Amino acid sequence: MNCIFDYSSKNSFPLHISTLEEAKTIILGRAWKCIFINWLVGSLGTGILVFLYYEKGFRGTTFLQESAEDVASYLESLTISLMDNPVGLKLNGPLSNALGAFFLYHIYLWRIYIISLQSLMTSLWVFVHFLGLFGASLLIAGLKDLLKFITFHCYVFYVYAARLYNINMLTVNSLWRLFRGKKYNPIRQCVDSGHFETDQIIVGMIVFMIAGFMLPTTAVYYFVFLTLRLLLKAVFLLLDQCQEFLRGHAQVPFKGAKSPSFDVTSALNFLKKIVFGEIV
Questions:
Q1: Residues 69, 72, 78, 80, Cα dihedral to 10°
Q2: Burial state string for 185-210 with b = 16 or more CB within 10 A and e = fewer than 16
Q3: How far apart are CA 139 and CA 91, in angstroms?
Q4: Residues 153, 75: contact at Cβ < 8 Å?
Q5: DSSP SS3 for 192
Q6: Is 101 helix (H, G, I), strand (E, B) or coil?
Q7: Among positive and negative, which fits the CA dihedral 62, 68, 74, 80?
Q8: What is the pLDDT of residues 118-135, one digit of tens each?
Q9: By the 8 A CB rule, do 249 and 35 touch?
Q10: Which of 96, 98, 92, 150 is nearest to 121 (CA)?
């Protein structure tokens, strides 16, 4: 039987596999090895958590509440600093104070929400406590969910700031086309020439000035919360890579399979989303 697989020198498989049964044997062997390592690391993690609980008095629920409170306090101090024109930025005072009061009120609501879910957090921690007995990847998944639970308000703030910034950017972009005698044609999905009356240009100029003066303030709030969002995504990506490493690669690559490579188009689309305030 001809060779049905092709391998690079980086893989631990032989260069040629002549039978499908041999390929199944290799896949099954690697799968059992990955399962054993996953279970061993997860059991070790659960053992460490149990040791910290009974020997060191470590309370996971108290840790979760303190972590949630620390994140809320950090966001509160960050919002207050943004209201005070940080690093010499000349922001729109009334708009900055309004946005700051809006975010501070949501931080207050988040603290009440955490207090009301104190019993649920205890149950969640006990549940996650023993997930390692079923594998380290499942334990990491539980920790990811807890981290998302603690930092959920960071994502909410990012969405608020991104939507406001996106509306502001779209307004400025649309009115800039108006001054150039252009308009967007939603039917043809392109920009066409247009004829505008004098009163339309006057109203557009007034709205453009208002949106232009608001843009620096909304941009500062947006990029601050965008930075927090990207940092959290980096942490989640690191945890995902840990899960992939623990699960291993039990599949044999077929001949002609392409290895993952850097996609320039995807990177440019991602940067475009960031510039125009789209949700990432």
A1: -100
A2: eeeeeeeeeeeeeeeeeeebeeebee
A3: 45
A4: yes
A5: strand
A6: helix
A7: negative
A8: 777 777 777 777 777 888
A9: no
A10: 150
